[in-house]
Amino acid sequence: MCKKTILLVDDEETILKSVSNYLKKNGYDVTTAASGEEAIKKLRTTPFDLTITDLAMVGVSGLDVLREIKKNNSTCCVFILTGYGNMESAIDALRSGADDYLLKPCDVEELVLKIKRCLEKQEALNRIKIYENILPICMYCKNIRDDTGVEPGKGKWMSVEEYLHRKSGTTISHGCCHKCYNNVLAKEIY
Questions:
Q1: Rounded to 5°, angle at Cα 26 from 23 and 29
Q2: If phi over 0 gives left and psi between -120 and 50 gives alpha, with beta otherwise, what is residue 174?
Q3: In tens digits, what is the pLDDT along the chain, a chain of 190 residues?
């Protein structure tokens, strides 16, 4: 299994080094950025599983980094880490899609636990997305279940022809492929 990737963004070098080292010791692949601008450049070229960003930075803030991430990669988890927390900034962060909001100095063991939980949730949601994109076909009669607009698993079962007609307006004409034709012809001869 490949290591989960984390982008750590903070304009304080001591935070970058200490938190980065601790996360690496806990098995994460950590990339650091010393500013919001640097973080956005890295995010545009490299996908990350999680970003931990300081809130208050000169220039591009942690909220700006968060919004950029959610605009381009909605599955990336984002934690806001700040020494200047208040209710208004916490609400802004959570409304913008932050997965967590932590005050500095944070307990690194608690941080690792929160990261683990968040990445497990992310993995579960990714699995659900994969299953949502599978078209259910009956293994016996080959009917298709159309779950469009209903709870998955509650859709109407219909023939392939009906399904294609509803989805694309296509009218089906029956024919016979060469393989089936040859099989049928071989059975008639013998």
A1: 60
A2: beta
A3: 578 999 999 999 999 999 999 999 999 999 999 999 999 999 999 999 999 999 999 999 999 999 999 988 778 899 999 888 788 888 888 899 999 999 888 888 999 999 999 999 998 888 877 776 678 888 888 898 988 888 878 889 998 888 888 888 877 777 888 888 888 776 766 5
Identify the burial level of 52 via C-beta atoms within 10 angstroms of its C-beta, where 0-12 means exposed, 13-18 middle and 19 or more buried: buried
The count of domains in the chain is: 2
Query: Are 42 and 6 within 8 A, CB to CB?
Result: no
pTM of the predicted structure, to 2 decimals: 0.70
Question: What is the span of the domain harbouring residue 156?
Answer: 144-189
